[in-house]
């Protein structure tokens, strides 16, 4: 019972994260939705490894690496957003239309 | 019952991340989501992961985003005129997710739905934990530094790339 509840919660957070990532005009909101996605994936991995993999804990170990990647990507993403804001003075996603006709 | 009490703010907060008008709110709501994730891990008995998730996700990631958001003047109101453009394809993907839910849920969870009716699916009882149990920290350490030690050392290259990237972006 608990397994299904947690899996449904992680799938729900994953879909909300994808929805927010696709339909957001703001770069910071897109990055926060990406963090939601990574968090949902983490819950999924950790739940499966807790229920089915007591010997090797592959899911739990992999979620440690996913946390490391999420933290690194947050730093790089915020540095990129900062430099874009410094040159363009706005954080809208659809402002890079110079190649359009 | 305690599961739904602890995880129901995550359902609302997750939606508010995507739909909040103020971008500062869309950085504050994931803090609630991470807190709910950590409490779920507490219920599973993974105490080390339940401690690491808030420390990294809230303490490092959300704080970094708060710095970014508060340094810049970000426009408050967004124009949501392009939301319906994504509705056909994303609707199909959403329907596929919703269809997959019926393979997981059984009739005991949500009655009156056409779900599976066996109530003994995915039951798992551990008896060894009642004899002598390892803490989550011991198990992770037993694996991460012995069998998966090469992966652990290779993942340090992530932080090498991070430091290069941040120094090049200035």
TrEMBL record, chain A:
Principal subcellular localization: membrane
Transmembrane residue ranges: 6-23, 30-49, 61-85
Keyword annotations: Chloroplast, Membrane, NAD, NADP, Plastid, Plastoquinone, Quinone, Thylakoid, Transmembrane, Transmembrane helix, Transport
Keyword NADP: yes
Pfam families: Oxidored_q2
UniProt-recorded name of the protein: NADH-ubiquinone oxidoreductase chain 4L
GO CC entries: NADH dehydrogenase complex; plastid
Record-level GO BP terms: ATP synthesis coupled electron transport
Similarity comment text for this entry: Belongs to the complex I subunit 4L family.
Record InterPro entries: NADH_UbQ_OxRdtase_chain4L/K, NUOK/Mnh_C1-like
HAMAP family membership: NDH1_NuoK
Organism: Gossypium darwinii (Darwin's cotton)
Localization, UniProt: Membrane
NADP in keyword set: yes
Membrane topology field: Multi-pass membrane protein
GO molecular function: oxidoreductase activity, acting on NAD(P)H; quinone binding
TrEMBL record, chain B:
Gene3D superfamilies attached to this UniProt entry: NADH-ubiquinone/plastoquinone oxidoreductase chain 6, subunit NuoJ
Compartments it resides in: Mitochondrion membrane
Keywords: Electron transport, Membrane, Mitochondrion, NAD, Respiratory chain, Translocase, Transmembrane, Transmembrane helix, Transport, Ubiquinone
Key word NAD present: yes
GO molecular-function terms, A-Z: NADH dehydrogenase (ubiquinone) activity
Classification via Pfam families: Oxidored_q3
Catalysed reactions, as listed in the record: a ubiquinone + NADH + 5 H(+)(in) = a ubiquinol + NAD(+) + 4 H(+)(out)
Transmembrane spans: 44-74, 86-105, 145-169
One GO cellular component, as annotated: mitochondrial membrane
E.C. code: 7.1.1.2
InterPro entries: NADH_UbQ/plastoQ_OxRdtase_su6 (IPR001457), Nuo/plastoQ_OxRdtase_6_NuoJ (IPR042106)
Entry membrane topology: Multi-pass membrane protein
Signal peptide start-end: none
Family to which the UniProt record says this protein belongs: Belongs to the complex I subunit 6 family.
Role: Core subunit of the mitochondrial membrane respiratory chain NADH dehydrogenase (Complex I) that is believed to belong to the minimal assembly required for catalysis. Complex I functions in the transfer of electrons from NADH to the respiratory chain. The immediate electron acceptor for the enzyme is believed to be ubiquinone.
Name of the protein in its database record: NADH-ubiquinone oxidoreductase chain 6
Organism: Gossypium darwinii
């Amino acid at each position: 019972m608990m397994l299904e509840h947690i899996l449904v919660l992680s799938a729900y957070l994953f879909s909300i994260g994808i929805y927010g990532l696709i339909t957001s005009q703001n770069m910071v909101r897109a990055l926060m939705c990406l963090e939601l996605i990574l968090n949902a994936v983490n819950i999924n991995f950790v739940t499966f490894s807790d229920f089915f993999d007591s010997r090797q804990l592959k899911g739990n170990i992999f979620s440690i690496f996913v946390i490391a990647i999420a933290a690194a990507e947050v730093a790089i993403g915020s540095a990129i957003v900062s430099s874009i804001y410094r040159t363009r003075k706005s954080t809208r996603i659809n402002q890079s239309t110079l190649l359009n006709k | 019952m305690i599961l739904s009490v602890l995880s129901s703010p995550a359902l609302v907060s997750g939606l508010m991340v995507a739909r909040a008008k103020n971008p500062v709110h869309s950085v504050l709501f994931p803090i609630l989501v991470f807190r709910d994730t950590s409490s779920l891990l507490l219920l599973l008995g993974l105490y080390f992961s339940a401690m690491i998730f808030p420390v990294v996700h809230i303490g490092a990631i959300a704080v970094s985003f708060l710095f970014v958001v508060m340094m810049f003047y970000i426009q408050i109101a967004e124009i949501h005129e392009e939301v319906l453009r994504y509705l056909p394809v994303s609707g199909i993907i959403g329907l596929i997710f919703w269809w997959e839910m019926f393979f997981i849920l059984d009739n005991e969870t949500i009655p009156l739905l056409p779900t599976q009716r066996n109530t003994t699916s995915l039951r798992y009882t551990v008896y060894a934990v009642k004899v002598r149990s390892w803490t989550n920290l011991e198990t992770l350490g037993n694996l991460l530094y012995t069998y998966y030690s090469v992966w652990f050392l290779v993942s340090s290259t992530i932080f090498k790339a991070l430091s290069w990237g941040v120094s090049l972006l200035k």
